[in-house]
Amino acid sequence: MGWVESLQRAINYMEDHLLDDLTMEQIAKEANLSIYHFQRIFTILTDVSVGEYIRRRRLTLAAQELSRTQCKVIDLAHKYGYDTPEAFTKAFRRQHGVTPSEARKHRGKLVSYNRLIIQVNLKGAKPMKYRIVEREGFQVVGIKRQFSMENEENLVGIPKFWDEVNGNGTDELLHQLNNGQIKGVLGICVADHENIQSTQKLDYWIATEYDGEPPDGLSKLEIPTSKWAVFEVVGPMPDAMQKAWKQIFSEWFPSSGYKHANTPELEVYTDEDPFKEDLYSEIWIPVK
Questions:
Q1: CA–CA separation, 164 vs 162, rounded Å?
Q2: Could you cite one Gene Ontology molecular function of this protein (predicted)?
Q3: pTM
Q4: What CATH number is attached to the domain comprising 83?
Q5: Do 155 and 20 fall into the same domain?
C-alpha cells in the first residue's frame, strides 16, 4: 500500500469515528506510519493540522444537524466532543460566524468543510532542483528540546524554540562552529518512525555539523549513514520552505520511485536575511 493510500485510509478512519474519542496514535496506526510522520505529511499536504481537521469536520456536521433537527444545543455539544454548551458555542461561532441559536433561525451563512480526499499532483509544472548524495554517518552539535505530539503541541512549540535560539545568540554560535560539509544551521526532528505505538514525543534539534567534542552547553547527535535527496529551496522563509515540502510530497515522491528511509530529515538554513527573495536553503531527506 502506497503512502497516499495509507493517508486516505487514516482519513477514512477519522471520518468513521468522528464522534469517538480519537487519538493520534489510533489514526497513525491506520496509516501504518509513526505519529510524527503521519502528522507531518498530513499538515504539509492539507495546510491544516489533524486536530484542526477533526474540529472543522465535527462543527460542520453539528451545523447540519442543528439546521435540520430540534436537538438541544447542550446535547449537540456533548455529541461533538465539547464539555459545556459555552465551549461549543465559542467554537461554533469561531468557525461559522454565528451562534448555534442564530444558525437554527437561519441567520447568517454556515461554513462547511467537506470530507477530505487526498489527491496527488503529478504534473510537475514547476521544476524541482535536487541531487542524490550518499554520505557516511556524521555528527552534529546543538541544543535539543523535547516536544509532545499530543494535541499537536509540537506544532506550536518548535517555532517558539527557533525564536528563542535566534534571540539569545545560539544561532550565531552554531554558524561559527560549523566545520562540516553541510553549511548552515539545521532543524532536525528525531522521532521513532518505525514504531507506530511509540510515545507521543519527539526530540527537536537546532544544530550544525561539527567534528569534535561539543562545547559547553551543547550536545551531540549522530546522523546515520544514508542516501539523501537534497532539494534546493529558494525564497523567503517560511513560505519557500513550506512550498518545497508540499511539492516534495505531492509531486516528487509519487513519481520518483524513492521511499522515505524513516530516519531524521534535515532543514538547512544559512545566516543570510531570512526574508530575502533569493534566499538559498536546503531540505535533506533520507531515501531508499
A1: 5
A2: DNA-binding transcription factor activity
A3: 0.83
A4: 1.10.10.60
A5: no
